[in-house]
Design goal:
Chain A is 43% helix and 13% strand. Chain A is α/β, with parallel strands linked by helices and 198 residues long. In chain A, α1 packs across α2. The longest helix of chain A is centred in the N-terminal third of the chain and has 17 residues, at 38-54. Chains A and B meet through α1, α2, α3, β2 and α5 of A and α1, α2, α3, β2 and α5 of B.
């Protein structure tokens, strides 16, 4: 029995197609939207179409931006000879939040995953190799430390090494503030292997 | 430092204003929307404006609908002499899902809450009293069993009693399948008070 209006059902259906939003949450959100002032609801809808319309990939690092070059690539004070390779723009944002990294980025928009049928040609690797033809000192691989991230890191390092450019990988280990007893064995072993002298 | 495009930030901001959506979730949703096919993103935006534009209150029971009368009030086979009063359209949907209730509803769109400054005039009580001038046998109060829901139930019962119409309240007690040891004392006492002979 259809208790809501067709428009409500459509909205609930669209919302529940978003990741992490189940049917109950979609219902709650839909009702919240119905009780919003009309301009607010229209603002939300407009922000979706606007973002989808104006946002494109940075010509240099492939992150999502609304200009030809993203603010980081356009910044001359950044060290354009150091490129950190990340899986997506959220990872870029996470490193950017530290405020300490002065190089530029390269966003792959994915990671190699034979399980999901994602091969090297499906991520922005060609664009990375093209950038390495310029003047680059170091490629820092900051893909996730998941199976896919590690596979991608291995693949990139094999690709970059013949060019003579330095390739590094961010360290795996115990997170700061992490309690040893709650950390998985693989991380503990990584932390042991990667130990540094004091 | 602004790492995302202005349009992305706007979208993240709009999404994180929704209930239960924090900044991290809003970011994840925004990126998901960016990676969607363009028509899908536009469909989502359209469903929001459409719902907001076409959905209104049922002239009879005040639930959200896109017609003059909601499908339940328009249904002649429903028992229009029994009115179940609920706080919102989601509660109506919950009872409707049982498939056993044959009466109609009245949606208050809120509950009396002195703490939040919501008085009897702020919910759809006037509309309920107007309906009671017609041919009604019973008013079933199905507001939540929270402080606000109980206050509202008391208020409505006092209002309806002088009209001579039967007023009932849905039972409080142990939920079916509920394990006694995990149920709060107030519910346990309610269940005891409301015990029925076998």
């Amino acid at each position: 029995m259809d208790v809501f209006s067709g428009y409500m059902n459509k909205l609930i259906e669209e919302l529940s197609a978003l990741p992490g939003i189940g049917n109950k949450t979609a219902q709650r959100l839909a009702f919240h939207i119905m009780y919003m002032p009309k301009e607010r609801a229209e603002g939300l809808a407009k922000s979706i179409t606007d973002a989808r319309e104006h946002v494109c990939y940075c010509a240099e690092c492939c992150t999502l931006t609304d200009q030809e070059l993203c603010p980081i690539c356009a910044n001359e004070r950044r060290d354009h000879k150091t490129i950190m390779v990340v899986e997506n723009s959220r990872d870029l944002a996470a490193y950017e939040k530290t405020g300490k990294y002065e190089g530029v980025y390269h966003v792959l928009h994915g990671a190699i995953s034979p399980m999901l049928g994602i091969g090297p040609a499906d991520i922005r690797l060609k664009e990375l190799m093209k950038r390495l033809e310029g003047d680059v000192d170091e490629v820092i691989i900051a893909t996730n430390s998941s199976l896919e991230g590690e596979t991608t890191a291995m693949y990139i390092s094999k690709l970059v090494k013949p060019t003579g450019i330095k390739v590094t990988r961010i360290a795996s280990g115990v997170p700061v503030g992490g309690d040893l007893e709650y950390i998985d064995e693989i991380t503990l072993l990584r932390a042991l292997e990667g130990r540094t002298e004091l």
